[in-house]
């Protein structure tokens, strides 16, 4: 009798084990199928700036290619304000399901270093891939007495505060880029902030401001028309849009490595498989003739990276800008 009961218990336990295993396999297979099916609805890409910036252009140009590749609409939304932190916060608080992404630039690292209190923790955002990078270009008004970068820095050292520089605003990437260069070379210039780098370049070209630093996109047309004097360009080689402008190394300042970058990020917790898939799709997108044409026309280089490489780069920039901000005693407006 006991043997019969024991046999029944054994059969019941085996049946329960089989049911549990089947249920687990069902959930696992359903999860794998759901992940493999990504994306199965439109993808939202937030740009934390107003329309018209190159960051916006990059998001829309790459977004169009991703839409074709993934078979789903990529919707770009501009959420500018608060130095890019408003739009970034929206992404930080979004569901980490692979349907919300951020396309931003150096401002992400600048904000992390500059603001003592942000509406989000920078760790709530993870890096997916770079989309593009481009050099920083140091320019001067054509009427400046000094005509090379070495002459200009020598004059600035001998005459502290005599020269000034314009930027896109207090704590902007252009402001920090110039402060970093001045610190490296022990020179002092008076900072004149503008509401955007475009406004600063207008005043440098008009002779009201001595020098400024900006992207190739904001400077190359002025240099070509001789309305700005190109002193140096960052990167390993001269820029094709301004072949007569020496690199910082050629100008005698090899230590200056500042580059402008543009990249895609996502809410922390987004499944690694989706991050990896998106990175691979970005690599395809930035190699298409359309993206290459738009990006090179704006003076930047199409590029893609792994999440790990992009993350390490951003962490390095946060450390650098934190040091520059502390040493120059820069505060947010």
From TrEMBL:
Keywords in alphabetical order: Signal
Signal among keywords: yes
UniProt organism field: Zwartia hollandica
Name of the protein this chain belongs to: Tripartite tricarboxylate transporter substrate binding protein
Protein family according to the UniProt entry: Belongs to the UPF0065 (bug) family.
Signal peptide, first to last residue: 1-36
One Pfam family it belongs to: TctC
InterPro entries the record matches: BUG (IPR005064), Bug_dom1 (IPR042100)
SUPFAM superfamilies: Periplasmic binding protein-like II
Signal found in the keyword field: yes
CDD domains: PBP2_Bug27 (cd13578)
């Amino acid at each position: 009798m006991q043997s019969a009961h024991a046999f029944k218990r054994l059969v019941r336990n085996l049946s329960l084990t089989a049911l549990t295993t089947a249920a687990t396999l069902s959930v696992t297979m359903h999860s794998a199928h759901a992940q493999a099916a990504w994306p199965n609805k439109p993808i939202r890409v937030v740009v934390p700036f107003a329309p018209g910036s190159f960051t916006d252009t990059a998001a829309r140009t790459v977004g169009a290619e991703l839409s074709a590749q993934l078979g789903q609409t990529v919707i770009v939304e501009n959420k500018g304000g608060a130095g890019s932190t408003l739009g970034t916060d929206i992404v930080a608080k979004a569901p980490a399901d692979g349907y919300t992404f951020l396309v931003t630039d150096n401002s992400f690292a600048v904000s992390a270093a500059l603001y003592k209190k942000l509406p989000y923790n920078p760790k709530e955002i993870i890096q997916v891939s770079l989309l593009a990078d481009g050099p920083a270009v140091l320019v001067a008004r054509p009427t400046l007495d000094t005509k090379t970068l070495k002459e200009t820095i020598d004059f600035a050292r001998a005459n502290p505060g005599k020269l000034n520089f314009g930027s896109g605003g207090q704590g902007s990437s252009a402001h920090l880029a110039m402060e970093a260069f001045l610190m490296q070379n022990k020179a002092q210039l008076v900072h004149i902030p503008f509401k955007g780098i475009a406004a600063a370049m207008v005043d440098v070209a008009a002779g009201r401001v001595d020098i400024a630093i900006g992207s190739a996109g904001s400077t190359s047309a002025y240099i070509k028309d001789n309305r700005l004097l190109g002193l140096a360009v960052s990167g390993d080689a001269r820029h094709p849009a301004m072949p007569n402008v020496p690199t910082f190394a050629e100008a005698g300042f090899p230590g200056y490595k500042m580059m402008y970058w543009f990249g895609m990020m996502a809410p922390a917790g987004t499944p690694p498989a989706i991050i990896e898939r998106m990175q691979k799709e970005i690599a395809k997108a930035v190699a298409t003739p359309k993206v290459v044409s738009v990006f090179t026309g704006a003076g930047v280089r199409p590029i893609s990276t792994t999440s790990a490489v992009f993350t390490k780069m951003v962490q390095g920039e946060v450390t650098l800008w934190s040091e520059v901000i502390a040493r120059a005693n820069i505060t947010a407006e």
